[in-house]
């Protein structure tokens, strides 16, 4: 299988929403354990304005994935509120949360979470299932994106047979096939060879330049160079870090 990615994401055009696109207020999250609740996030505040490209770094186990799950409306905080595009979200209204997720949030999971027995193209089409789009159009767009990611040959294979790098690209394609307002990426280059990682970063740069807001978690400190803002997650909190000179700010200037 080729690892070539042909100018990914160039066919899609996102649009920015009124700021802030995401507002987390006093978010805490704890998990039960035999020794009592383990507090992972403590009164975290994060306002994300439309058009930002936020890179979050921090030690393993510091709560980055937990934070993205809450920001992606997949997991409810133990305390605090989540507002999306100015609308404070009721944590238990699964229908509303699913509707916003499906239409506006693209999520690239650290562990991919592909439907293992479904074909690659069905995985990429997944976000269409809650939308009133024609299925033929969804398949066409998914196939076009797979082609751009160098994955055209895998379209009808079950996801379970793919390599880690191929799975990662399928996960990215699924997140961006419907251009989201907010793209959340949890270590999206972690399984990629350097050339494929560069192509994926080009993809993120293009999506950001088209108006998509990005929150990007990584252990690769070099990727801070893509950020308009850099945050560090540690000891239950989020702290602003001074940014290195950012090519992203030049792109969006
Ligand atoms: N569902 C869960 N139940 C219990 N504990 C959990 C659960 N999910 C996460 N944790 C714990 O919360 C802490 C933060 O986990 P999280 O996955 O958010 O860290 P992370 O910063 O993303 O780490 P990494 O960089 O290794 O991906 C860890 O100690 C983890 O064990
Ligand atoms: Mg993680």
Plain-language structure description:
The chain has 253 residues and is α/β, with parallel strands linked by helices. It has helices spanning 64-71, 94-104, 120-124, 135-148, 164-176, 194-209, 247-252; strands spanning 22-31, 38-48, 53-57, 79-84, 87-88, 105-108, 182-186, 213-217, 229-234, 237-241. A six-stranded mixed β-sheet has the order 6-7-8-3-9-10, sandwiched between helices. Strands 2-1-4-5 form a four-stranded antiparallel β-sheet, with helices on one face. The chain starts with 21 loop residues before the first strand and ends with a helix. 41% of the residues are buried. The model is unreliable at 1-17 and 246-253 (pLDDT under 50). The structure holds adenosine-5'-triphosphate and magnesium ion. Magnesium ion is lined by residues 64-65, 110, 186.
Q: Which sequence of strands runs across the widest sheet? A: 6-7-8-3-9-10
Strand share of the residues? 15-25%
Q: Residue share in helices?
A: 25-40%
End-to-end distance: 38 Å
Radius of gyration: 18 Å
Oligomer: single chain
Q: Give the integer mean of the pLDDT values.
A: 86
Overall 3D geometry?
globular
Number of H/I helices: 7
Biggest sheet layout:
6 strands, mixed
The number of strands is 10
Topology as H/E string? EEEHEEHEHHHEHEEEH
Distinct bound molecules: adenosine-5'-triphosphate, magnesium ion
* Low-confidence runs of at least 5 consecutive residues: 1-17, 246-253
Q: Class by helix and strand content?
A: alpha/beta
């Amino acid at each position: 299988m080729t690892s070539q990615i042909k100018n990914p994401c160039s066919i899609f055009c996102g649009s920015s929403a009124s700021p802030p696109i995401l507002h987390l207020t006093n978010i805490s999250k704890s998990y039960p354990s035999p020794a009592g609740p383990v507090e992972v996030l403590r009164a975290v505040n994060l306002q994300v304005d439309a058009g930002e490209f936020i890179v979050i770094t921090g030690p393993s186990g510091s709560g980055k994935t937990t934070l993205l799950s809450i920001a992606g409306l997949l997991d409810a905080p133990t305390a605090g509120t989540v507002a999306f595009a100015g609308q404070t979200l009721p944590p238990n209204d699964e229908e509303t949360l699913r509707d916003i997720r499906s239409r506006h949030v693209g999520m690239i999971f650290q562990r991919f979470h592909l439907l293992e027995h479904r074909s690659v193209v069905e995985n990429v089409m997944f976000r269409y299932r809650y939308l009133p789009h024609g299925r033929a159009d969804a398949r066409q767009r998914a196939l076009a994106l797979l082609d751009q990611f160098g994955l055209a040959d895998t379209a009808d294979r079950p996801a379970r047979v793919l390599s880690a790098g191929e799975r990662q690209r399928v996960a990215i394609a699924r997140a961006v096939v419907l251009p989201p307002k907010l793209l959340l990426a949890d270590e999206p280059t972690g399984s990629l060879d350097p050339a494929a990682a560069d192509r994926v970063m080009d993809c993120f740069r293009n999506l950001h330049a088209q108006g998509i807001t990005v929150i990007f978690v990584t252990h690769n400190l070099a990727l801070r160079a893509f950020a308009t803002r850099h945050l560090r997650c540690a000891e239950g909190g989020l702290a602003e870090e001074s940014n290195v000179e950012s090519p992203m700010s030049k792109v969006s200037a």
